[in-house]
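Think of the structure tokens as a kind of shorthand, similar to the way a musician reads notation: each symbol stands for something richer, in this case the local conformation of the backbone. In the example below we present two proteins back to back. Begin with the first one, reading the sequence and then the tokens, and try to describe in your own words what changes along the chain.
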Amino acid sequence: MRQCFILVFCGISLQILLFFYMQFFSLDWIEERTTGRKIQPENYTYRSLIQLVLDKNASDASTEITMLMNGEPFPSIVTTESNGRLGNQLSAYAALQYFQEVHGMYGVMGSWQINMLADVFGKENLKVTTFNVDVPPQFSLNWEMVASPSQSVWELNSNFLDNMEEYRHNKFINIGLYPHYLFLYKDILDQLRDHLVFKPHVTNLVNNGFEKIRSENKNEKEMMFVGVHCRLTDYGNHLKAVSGASLVDHHYFDRAFDIYRARYNNATTQVVFLVMSDDPQWIKENLGKYEDVRFGINFRKGMVTEMDMIAFDLCLLGSCNHSIITYGTFGTWGALFAGGDVIAPTGTNPGAKTEDDLIWEKAAMDGWLYLDVRDVNNIQEVTYTPPVPPTNSSTRIVQKDA
């Protein structure tokens, strides 16, 4: 009888402990409710029922996460189930790296996501890894979703953004299906370029293309390369379905070309436009009339394997001095890797903002100019001004232990 009483008592005690800890993993939650006092971030002490041991294998871009019952705090684990192509996975990686770099969390991705990135950049330099979590039998792992779709884009919840300090420890966080949070990870683009390094053989092929163009230069001027990404074919259906928008036509490129020529053509410099597209016939028919236009497909034919074509296209765009893009994450990342001036369209849906409009406007990137194409005979220039941050907000880089 006494043994039964002890077992029942222990069972009830364990259930009470699990009730308080299974979601919050923190004793501060109990303290707030028993004292009525809200713990301020600057005095915040993290106490956890479990500890996470992170065993990172850099060469394989993977992390083995083991949960131990010893009460030490752990950095919040943040992930996304982004299921798109390369541009989407780059945006997901960048968003996770932002939370890892700026807020001290630990970013992880699925193995298939990392493999897609590794096909282009290799695994050895990636800072976000795949993962496997070994959970004690007393717990089930629940990822807290902190984002939701709004209009045609995913947005982080205001409670998450406004209370970031409370999310830095002891949580498992999902930042949404399509985390195109350029307004955040624009602050770490230099770091992203440092470790998202194209494979050497692809870089060599791209450099050979540039040298071939330079060798054809008869006026000995310095060449200023502008990468042009023209997404067509199936993307028209996507634009219509998601944003009610239409594809741009040659008027957009004509105006963008003229802007760059006016900016950079002079006695010592010559602008050259390198055009990449999924519809080579269209770009040659509509843009081939210009002497300063070259087509990327001509530099990869017979030189680039099928496996490397996507990497070659992105590396070529990202190796240019400046950019002209249309829509979608692939062209956006080509421009982000290039890091110079960018021209992009707006007004592709005359009555509403598109997915790209919402992302670009919120980010308000320096050096980006937008061409309003609602009236192709009177294309207007548009710029976005960054919002004024709250006076109590700050961005900080969390120092990692060596």
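Once you have a description of the first chain, move to the second and do the same.
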Amino acid sequence: MSQKRALVSVYNKKGIVEFCSQLYELGFEIVSTGGTHKQLSEAGIKVTQVSDVTKFPEILGGRVKTLHPAIHGGILARRNEAHLAELNKHSIVPINVVVCNLYPFSETISKPGVSEAEVIEEIDIGGVTLLRAAAKNFESVAAVCDPADYATVLEALKKEEGLSADQRKRLALKAFRHTAAYDAAIASWFSTSVDGADKLPEAINLSAEVIQTLRYGENPHQQGALYKWTGKSYPFEQLQGKELSYNNILDVDAAWAVVEEFADPACCIIKHNTPCGIATAASIIEAYNAAYESDTVSAFGGIIAVNRDVDVPLLEAIGKLFVEVLVARSFTNDALEWLSNKKKNCRVMRVKHDVPKDLVIRSVFGGVLVQTGDHTGVKFDDWKVVSKKQPTDEQMKELAFAWLAVKHVKSNAIVLVRGTATVGIGCGQPNRLDSVRTAGIHAADKAKDSVLASDAFFPFPDGIEAAAAVGAVAVVQPGGSMRDNEVIEAADRLGLVMIFTGERHFKH
């Protein structure tokens, strides 16, 4: 039983002809199925049909091809005297290399309008079984699931000692990761199909793969890497600039989430995962200028996101301001040339496609917390004016902007707004009163005649009194405090407009 045999059955046929040609030259018998057999044969490679090994034809339209003892016995047999004797008894040849990758399930479920029947047909059975069997018996069998490994495998097989135990074990690890990710995608699809997309699943099977190893994590003594969900595309592409850091990636997410809220030209400047300026305007340059003026000190070294194309006039408006990252859907060629000449270290990020509204998943000790995203907008029908003073149309516009902005600020969150631009932001304080005062300090004189949004209710009248003291004339907040009547009385006493939305926007 010194014959070397390789079983080859792949969906992704990249490089397979060259790989199998060299395997054949190394003395391997190539056993294959279906489309793989056809392609290899047409390339002039001598190939044995699986059915010639199993003495049983493919059945059920190809659903059953390799599920047979003549195949799996050859893969799973230990290379010891007892197992080899049993193989010999049944005329089974050991299989040394299994080359297999799987039907494109994740790609199929991503297609618009795909039917359930089409999805089901892309659930690979035989391929998963082949890989798991080969990976289990890695002491004797090489499980090759990634075309990127073909060259390394061939290089090792050309040596007298062949693939090392460590190489086979690493290939087994990759195969088990491949099948685990595949099964996770299938389980996720079934969960959505059975329970619906709006219901949190009873179990979550997470599968992600590294797309960028970072210099370090949040701090230099921590490791860090960026992963993308298996079968999905990471929505941001770096066009130029220094290598992204862990903190840059967090800030890119935060900045883009803000500008996506608005249909009008919008700009957000983020610092340490917190907005320091948010604005919309008739033009993107006006929006940038207003966002910058919200906090000119914090904007230094910030992350800027805009929801319009970046062109040279916008870049000239940004001028010499030190910018860590610039995020947009597109950049003109002239803008990219300008950036390469004048801000070559600035990380330029293009948004390749719409950002998916995935579940929000955060690690906690011993598990993960999961929630749906906070994607609600302004619901005027649910807003209730609770003050004696009624808002003007202009104030309603300002309050709507403020309500969208405040949900992106860390709790306790307060924003002061004039027009459609923040003028002061108070965030992350353990009490709401301090957040009001912080926003007022940042706004200074610009707080006069501003409107204020609060991500959660005011538990005491003192927050409203502080709002009036800094110059706010209207407040939008969820309401719901046991002291709402006292808070409303304070608003009336101070001549403020107050609106309850009935909806909270905590962000932690």
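Compare your description with these statements about the second chain. The chain has a mean pLDDT of 91.
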